[in-house]
Amino acid sequence: MRRRSFLTLGASVPLFSVFSSSGCSSSDSGPAMDSGAPLDSSTDTGADANVADTSADAIAEADVTPSLETLPALPLLKNESTTPGLFQATLRAAPIKLPFLGGTTEFWAYNGSVPGPMVVVREGDRVKIRLENGLASQPTIIHWHGLEIPPDQDGLPMSAIAAGKTFDYDFTIPEGTAGTYWYHPHPHMLTAEQAARGLAGVFLILPKGADPLPAYEEKVLMIEDLKLAADGSIADSDAKDRMNGREGNHLVINGAEKPTIAITAGTKQRWRIINACSARFFRFTIPGHKLTLVGTDGGLLGAPVEVDEVFLAPAMRAEIIVTGTGSAGSRVAVKSLSYDRGRMIGNLISLDTDLATLAYRDDAPGTSPAIPTTLRPITALAAGPKVQRIEFAEALVSGEMTFLINGKSWDMARIDWTEQVGVTTEWDVVNTGNMDHPFHAHGGSFQIVSRTIGGVTTPETLLAWRDMANTKSTETVRIRMRLPTTGLRVVHCHILEHENQGMMATFDVKA
Ligand code: C2O
Ligand code: CU
Ligand code: CU
């Protein structure tokens, strides 16, 4: 048996209660339950699940009989409406103390859980969610990352509400947008801190009709990066965090560090992976296993693609099918491979990291239906009438490093350019900086057309809907985006410290 350290033991059970004190529970029968496929069948059974005791005895016992099922299921945001097609609920952002490594840590959390409760809705649903700002003194607002909804529902910094106030969202989920999204705060200059303190959750949109994929066992993996001080509190960001983007010292999935994900040999599982970290770039892989990429930020691909690894820059999502080709009882590390994201304070090279363990159950091998060869039609967007240049740059301004778009720091009162509603817009996202900047656009999904670096242009071969496109130093990424609604939208770097420091721009979509 692999010897597990104290830290790993503490972390092999959920670090936090992912169950809120306000009635959210993974057994709530929300929309997820009638989807035909349980969203996550991992349950915390067995002695491991509730270990509060970190005595030597407890460690020794856990060492001998590790639970195979330690990936915590995300709590669901309970639908309080009984009207079909209406999802109604409240998200309260507030400080809360949660158990961590034998002590307690003060997080800022939605409904008392880290990550926040998972919202599960269907295409066509009307969503009425009340945000309550229970933070001590900061304004906040929720941005529904990737959703194609009107600007006044999008949670722009301009919509932020003061501490003690509420905001009532009311929007409809557009057809054809089923996929894996997430939500996080977006107040001006405070997004990075609020996310780092625990405010973020998963937002799943299920298809209105039948899901093109068979009902495989399903897991949702929300990856977050916690930076904790020696006393267990969430560390403040330092100058290096602000420049490089904050990297923590505890990578957690659904609140658990290096969890074990159980699989039955011979079966397939559908994993929805969300990179909710501010500055971690993953090359997600399971050694000895082929992965099948079936979806990106904006939902399913046209057709599945076999891959060895999946690249996930901050805020990106992927849906993959994991085929259990290992043998019963075996274990394999789920890893992120080394990645070089450029230079800022030092070289930003991450090493191979173990994220989780894939553990084969001891039961008899099973089978799963084959992955369909086509998933849904995706039409390539045609070229737009103009090409808008969006340049990410880093610059020293009177001794301070600043992060700019088209030479400017974000100004809430300024509109940087205009677009026309219903017309495909074509953008060249140019990175003249020294490090990767993951580009994000609000208001819907785009397609990547090509990448140019060192004078060589490589057309994108994967036809996919995205709201994220990583840009490497000296690279230009050309994208095409549909703009279905009028109003103000923003683009920004999704290293949240860079966004905080001005690497954001506003465009106005005109009628
Ligand atoms: Cu997740 Cu404006 O971003
Ligand atoms: Cu967004
Ligand atoms: Cu950046």
Would you count the extended β strands for me? 34
Can you give the helix content as a percent range? Answer: under 10%
Radius of gyration: 22 Å
> Under the CATH scheme, which architecture of the largest domain would be assigned?
Sandwich
Protein described:
- This protein has five helices and 34 strands.
- The chain is mainly β and 511 residues long.
- It folds into three domains: 201 residues, Immunoglobulin-like (Sandwich), CATH 2.60.40.420; 144 residues, Cupredoxins -  blue copper proteins (Immunoglobulin-like, Sandwich); 124 residues, Cupredoxins -  blue copper proteins (Immunoglobulin-like).
- Strands 12-11-10-14-19-16-17 form a seven-stranded mixed sheet. Strands 25-24-27-32-29-30 form a six-stranded mixed sheet, with no helix packed on it. Strands 1, 2, 4, 6 and 7 form a five-stranded mixed sheet that branches.
- It is globular and about 65 Å long.
- The site of one copper (II) ion has 4 residues, from strand 5.
